Amino acid sequence: MPKSKTKLFAGPRLRQLRQREGLTQAALAGLLDISLSYLNQMERDHRPLPERQLIALCERFDLGPAWFTDTREAHRVQALREVLADPIFKDAPLSLAKMSDAARNNPDLCEAFLTLYRAYAFDLERRDQEKESSPPLEPYETVGNWVQEHKNYFHELDRAAEDFYEKLHVEDGELAPALAAHLLARHGLEIDRDTTMEARGLVWRIDRQKRRILLPHNQPPESTLFCLAQIIGQLEYSPLMSRIIRREGPRDSNAQALARVYLGNSFAGALLLPYGRFLQTAEQTRYDIDRMRRHFGVSFEQVSHRLSTMQRPGQEGIAFYFLKLDIAGNILKSFSANRFSQARFGGPCPLWNVFRAFATPGQVQVQLSQTTDDSVYLNVARTVSREGLTYGDRPRQIAIVLGCKLSDAPKTVYASGLNLEDSSLVVPIGPGCRACVRDNCSHRSLPVSGRTLDTGNDARGVVPYRALPEKR
Question: Which domain holds residue 52?
Answer without folding.
Answer: 11-61
